[in-house]
Fold:
Amino acid sequence: MRLTFISTYLPQRCGIATYTSYLVDALLQVEPRVGIKVIAEDLASAVETDRLTVLPVWSRRGDYVSTILEHLEDVDCLHIQHEYSIYGFDDRLPRLLDSVPRDIKKILTIHCIRPAQFSERATIDEHFVHTIAKRADRIILHLEAQRAILMRLGIYHMVHS
Structure:
């Protein structure tokens, strides 16, 4: 299997970068046939081994869609690590998800969902997470409360927690 992550990555000081490095390390240890590519934000370090490639090619400050799409060759599954501060609330991530070739499965780990009933800003958060979640084949969450929010938003058929 050829798995690609879109994420921040080490040595960038970011919890998502560390989390993704743990996922990559675990997958490489348990599955000798997996090849992993990380299409990383530009603060990561480039890596090239027989089973791992890290490409620090995009910036959250720019229109990263075409840059990321250029690196999606030979991919079976795309796993995007989502956090609001990385991708923002504009149309870039939805456009990216819409532009991924149909034969590539899309998994989205949503690390944070702020519930709308607790802040005005959270209504925007919920709307955006609904926008991106409906474009993924599977969603990974960390909390049952996040699952409840997505179910309330009508995304229950894709939720995995």
